[in-house]
Amino acid sequence: MSSYSYADTFSHTHARRLAGRVTTDLRQSHLLYGSPTESGLEDYRAELEELLSEGCVARYQFGFKRDEKAVWSLRYVVGPDGALAGAGAAGGVPSAVNITGATFFNFLTFSDKWFRLSPSERRAIEGKLPFTRNDGTLPSEMGGYWTRDRTYAAGGVALERSVFRNLAA
Question: What's this model's pTM, rounded to 2 decimal places?
Fold first, then answer.
């Protein structure tokens, strides 16, 4: 879990811009690997936009796993961008990775703010979301490495993106 506070200038429009960048990455994954589904893209965007606008996301991660080990993954860490500048261009999803026998995963880690909300406040936010998440565990990252490659920023909040590549994949 992590904690961050939004700048006074952060708005739902900024959340939409950041969620759109992640959705572009999800769409590129769909085009290269067939997952997530085309119909799931809008649901992921709507969920992330709503939770970002409420300050309830600490990390967001998706990719492919085989035998509970990550094949490739993109991870976004949410926080104030301070002196970071620019919005960063979406894309750059790992290509030509062998995902035979692998399955798509999508994982969201809630921020400290989420856990400080009352049950009724959480239910109110959940009522706006397109689907309900289940508890889960991220795949193992053994046998690979992370590279920080992009930062998507809007309204004083940044999504710092890293790419995981499995050396055996």
Answer: 0.86
